[in-house]
Structures are given as structure tokens and as C-alpha cells.
Amino acid sequence: MLKSPLFLPPLFLRMCRKLLWAALVLWGITIVSFWVIHLAPGSPTDMEVTLNPLAGEAARARLESLYGLDRPLHVQYWDWLVRLAHLDFGNSMSADSRPVLEKIWERLPLTAGMNLASLLLTLLIAVPLGVVSAWKQHSLFDRSVTVLVFLGFAMPSFWLALLLMLYCGIDHDWLPLSGITSLEFSSMGPWEQVCDVARHLVLPLIVYTVGNLAGMSRFMRACMLEVCRQDYILTAQAKGLSTWTVVCRHALRNALLPLITLLGLSIPGLIGGSVIIESIFALPGLGQLFYAAVMARDYTMIMGNLVLSAVLTLSGNILADFCYGLADPRIRTQKS
């Protein structure tokens, strides 16, 4: 018997509602962000007028008219929103006046690649650490990992970055301190170029990973401890199943569900968490671009970065919801 098309899968209906709600939330975020950045002191014209002794109020007025800053705020927002609906983020208010989207796409691969590599490395280390620490609770291994993890959690990322630069770059000259390539990069072969970029990214990747590893491993340990106290785990042990089977097939899958939410919420860190590290290591990524835009009061560039962060946040929540459905069959069959 064929089902009516009105009876759509509950997971599909939930995704449609999520997408509609995400669009409304994104609209609200753009309104608040546009209003807040215009409340901040300073203007994009300050850098061009204040530092030029020959520029007066007439020059400032012409620049404000050029950028559209002389119009009411709600008119500026509406014009920006109309352009955004056509995926046009406008042009940067900096000296180069390049399209915002073009500048973002130039910086995105480095920041996204660094954060995704760090996230993958964090999962590969944090999940086994959390599982073993929970299964061997109060053992020497558990206590040792706890001490090391809390040391990493309490250590500021900028301080760790400076220590690594001092030890690995200055004292021993093992790794380069800043940038993404060496001066002789153009004269290297393809494989040497790959190795050169990798050497430049080792220290930032370590800082990224240490900062995420502490919280992720502790969260995984807490989830495993909660799951291991459930009756079905005790039943599986009573049946004589091996430790590997109990941990991997019964406990780990359910313990990963809360971790999915944490991973979804960590996606916005692609931009926010990169500002400090990219500034310290002089990496040409989105974090450094966003910092420069804030210092220059580049409104269009700031809004472009904020919209990207909002989209990543909402996408992370939707992706976490979808992964919940994949990990837990009860969610896929639950009625809306």
C-alpha cells in the first residue's frame, strides 16, 4: 500500500522546520549585528581622513556619501540585505575596495583546513582518552590524564604559542615561527613546497589541538561514565561479553550522542578561535582578516565575517541534529 506524500519522514519534517527557523534566526542576527557595529566609536572614514592632513570635512562627507554612510541606518541595512539576498556582500571599505566575498574565499581554505585538521586530531586523541579514562576510573592512567588535561585546559593559547615559538623556533631552530611559506618557497619542488607549508603549520596546529583536547576528552569521559552505569551495560557484562564488545558496540555509540552536539557548536570556532593564533603566527587566514576589519571599522567586511560565523553556527546545529538521527534510530522514527 502506497503512503500519501503528506506522510513525510519525521526526520525530513524536522529538518525543514530547522531550516525555516535557522533562516529567521539568521535574519535576527544580521539586524542586531548591523546595529551594534554602527554603535561602536569610529568610522571607516577616520583612517583615510584623520591620517591625511590635506583632507577636511568635505573629503569626509564625500567618502561617507561614497560608502552610503550618510543615509539612515535602516536604509543602509535594507540595501545591504537586498545585496545579501543575491549573495553580494558588497565591497570592502578598506583601501583596496575589493569584493568582501572574494577576500573571504581567499582566506577561508587556510582557516578551515587548520581547524578541520585540528578537530580531526582532537577526536582521534580525545575519544580514546575519554573512553579509557572512564573505563579505568580512578586508576593511575585516569589520574595522570586528568592532571595533563587540566594543565592544557588552564593554559592560555597565546602563552602556549609563545612558549612553543621560544623553544622550537628560537632555542632549537626546529620549526619556523611565522608565516605559511619560506622566502625560497618559489624555488622549491612540489614535494618540498608541501613539506615547507606543513612545517609552518605544525606549531599553530599544536596550539589549536591542545586548546580543544582538554574539554573534549573530559566531556567524553563524563559521557562514558554516565553510560557505563546503565543497566544494559551491566547486563552485557553479565552475559560474559568481552570488554571490547561492551565498550565499542554498546557504550561508545550512546556516549557519542552528546559529543555530536559539542562538535556542532564548535564549528563557529573556525573564525572566532583563529583570531589570536593567526595574529601570533602571522597566518593569512580569516581570523587575521576579521581582526584587521574591526580595527579599520570596515563595516562590510565585519558583516561578511559575522554572517559567515552565524551560518556556520546554525549549520552546526542542523548538522548535529542530522547526525543524532543517524546515530540513534529512535530519533529517525520519532513522530513530529
Q: Uncertain spans, ≥5 residues at pLDDT below 50?
A: 1-7
The count of β-strands is: 0
pLDDT averaged residue by residue: 80
Give me the strand/helix succession.
HHHHHHHHHHHHHHH
Class from helix and strand fractions:
mainly alpha
Judging from the principal axes of the Cα atoms, what is the shape? globular
Secondary structure tally, helices? 15
Tell me roughly what share of residues is in helical segments: over 70%
Cα radius of gyration in angstroms: 25 Å
Q: Could you tell me how far the N terminus lies from the C terminus, measured between alpha carbons in angstroms?
A: 22 Å
Query: What is the percentage of strand-forming residues?
Result: under 5%
Task: Give the biggest sheet.
Answer: none
Could you describe the 3D structure shown?
This protein has 15 helices and no strands. The longest helix is centred in the middle third of the chain and has 39 residues, at 190-228. The radius of gyration is 25 Å and the shape is globular. It is mostly helical and 336 residues long. It starts with 9 loop residues before the first helix and ends with a helix. The model is unreliable at 1-7 (pLDDT under 50). It is 75% helix and 0% strand.
Describe this structure in a few short sentences.
The protein is mostly helical and 336 residues long. The protein has 15 helices and no strands.
